[in-house]
Design goal:
Elements: E1 11-14, E2 21-29, H1 33-37, E3 41-42, E4 50-57, E5 63-72, E6 83-90, H2 92-104, E7 108-109, H3 114-121, H4 127-136, H5 142-149, H6 155-179, H7 184-187, H8 192-213, E8 220-224, H9 231-239, E9 257-263, E10 266-272, H10 283-296, E11 300-306, H11 313-322, E12 327-332, E13 349-350, H12 356-363, H13 366-370, H14 381-402, H15 407-424, H16 430-440
Parallel strand pairs: 1-7, 8-10, 8-11, 11-12, 12-13
Antiparallel strand pairs: 1-2, 2-6, 3-4, 4-5, 5-6, 9-10
């Protein structure tokens, strides 16, 4: 659409808030700004920067309103063009008459984001500044503002470099496999770990922007583990009511259950997932797959371990695949005589869902008050789109590896993912930003 926008026309739009209001600002910008303004405003406005007090009239001479006019001469304006702001009373009828008269005189309504489009075309703002501007409209707290302006601290570059290091590890493994093609099954699988770590790190970064854009959607805590580890019992205890079915038979939970809870003054989405185990089919397998997707999108996850059994292959695989994401190991069922917590299990928290003191200790953990998803630098919308593309590429790589795709093809695909990753912290592309400007900005911006 923007490639068909006429830069030679004169635009107008309501640049203030919704009507009615105490004051409304109607913005006019383009080559005919002053000539159009002088046909409806008295006294005459000189083509100079200034403030003018007067009245507006229709083309038939009928009085519309009185107020002030702010005039800006190109290139010293937001758009880089001649610009005038009409400050009038914010009555619906007054603003409507303004717009009708401007249409009669040859001005046209601005498209969404078109004022900002002209600003970038005339070199008044950079793509990065437009990204910041777009996110300022999403800020709802001083913390949001600090995160947006804190992008200058190069924190994101450091996190991207960590992801890049993992991908270079995987690339080295692929390149080695090219020279040792007969050893494919021994060499290529070593790339799984760094690729999975990169996917998780991309997910953690993008969730920070999701929280800014959708504050009504609290970050997710996923309860994960093998069947009968006690996930659903814990889910019910945190909620304070019987929400998830609890039964001794494995595979009782086959769907994902979610509820919003308040922990340490912060809202979270608590998620109960199906028990993870190998060699299952049908609805239970679909439930496990669905739970994995919810875990990948979680800000924090709790590995619930049956303390009477201990760690096994299921828990080891979960930690290997998702250990880079903030998590806690909960060594459950300590009220039972068979329970045992090995000293070598560092960082695990002893727990029983039937003991009130254990539940209090869990829910008062500092991670839940700080919000793990909020820690770290805030990406931009364009960076998030690129990181999501990187994640898709890496997920495709894992699928290709499972099919034993030749390492030459894997290397080339990964190099494309590396280029996408490096572009996240490179120069901001004008086209990428303009896609957002025309898709998300309001009419008066």
């Amino acid at each position: 659409m923007r490639r068909n926008v006429d830069l030679s026309s004169t635009l107008f739009a309501l640049a203030s808030g919704s009507l009615p209001s105490a004051v409304a600002i109607v913005k006019l910008s383009g080559p005919d700004t002053f000539s159009i303004s002088n046909k409806i405003f008295r006294p005459r406005i000189e083509r100079a920067r200034g403030i003018w007090k007067g009245s507006w009239f229709t083309s038939e001479g009928a009085f519309i309103d009185e107020g002030i006019v702010l005039s800006f001469v190109a290139p010293h304006s937001h758009t880089g063009e001649d610009t005038i702001e009409f400050h009038c009373h914010g009555a619906v009828a007054i603003v409507r008459q303004f717009q009708e008269e401007l249409l009669k005189l040859g001005a046209r309504p601005a498209e969404k984001g078109e004022f900002s489009y002209r600003a970038i075309q005339h070199g008044k703002v950079s793509p990065g500044e437009l990204e910041t501007l777009g996110d300022l409209f999403l800020a709802r707290s001083p913390e949001d503002l600090s995160a947006i302006y804190g992008r200058r601290d190069a924190g994101l570059e450091k996190e991207i470099e960590k992801i890049r290091a993992n991908l270079i590890r995987a690339l080295a493994i692929y390149d080695t496999a090219v020279d040792f093609s007969d050893e494919y099954s021994q060499v290529v699988p070593r790339a799984v770990e760094p690729i999975q770590l990169a996917i998780q790190e991309c997910s953690v970064i993008t969730q920070r922007y999701d929280r800014l854009k959708e504050p009504q959607k609290p970050p997710r805590i996923a309860l994960v583990g093998r069947p009968n580890a006690g996930k659903s019992s814990l889910f019910n205890r945190v909620l304070g009511r019987y929400r998830a079915i609890v039964h001794v038979d494995p595979g009782t939970t086959r769907d994902v259950l979610e509820e919003t809870v308040l922990l340490n003054g912060r809202a979270w989405t608590l998620t109960d997932t199906a028990g993870v185990r190998a060699e299952v089919q049908g609805p239970e397998a679909l439930g496990i797959e669905l739970g994995t997707r919810y875990l990948e999108g979680a800000a924090f996850w709790i590995l619930v371990v049956d303390g009477t059994v201990g760690l096994g292959e299921v828990e080891a695989e979960l930690l290997e695949r998702h250990g880079a994401k903030p998590h806690l190991i909960l060594w459950n069922k300590r009220d039972l005589p068979e329970w045992n917590l090995p000293q070598a299990t560092l960082g695990a928290q002893a727990f029983s869902s039937v003991l009130p003191e254990d539940l209090d200790a869990l829910l008062s953990r500092p991670e839940f008050s700080k919000g793990a998803v909020e820690q770290g630098p805030l990406p931009t919308a364009v960076a998030v789109a690129k990181l999501n593309q990187v994640r898709e590429t890496l997920s495709g790589l894992l699928a290709s590896m499972a099919k034993e795709t030749p390492p030459e093809y894997l290397s080339e695909e990964l190099r494309g993912g590396l280029r996408d990753l490096e572009s996240v912290i490179g120069e901001v592309g004008v086209e990428d930003v303009l896609d957002r400007v025309f898709g998300e900005f309001c009419i008066g911006k």
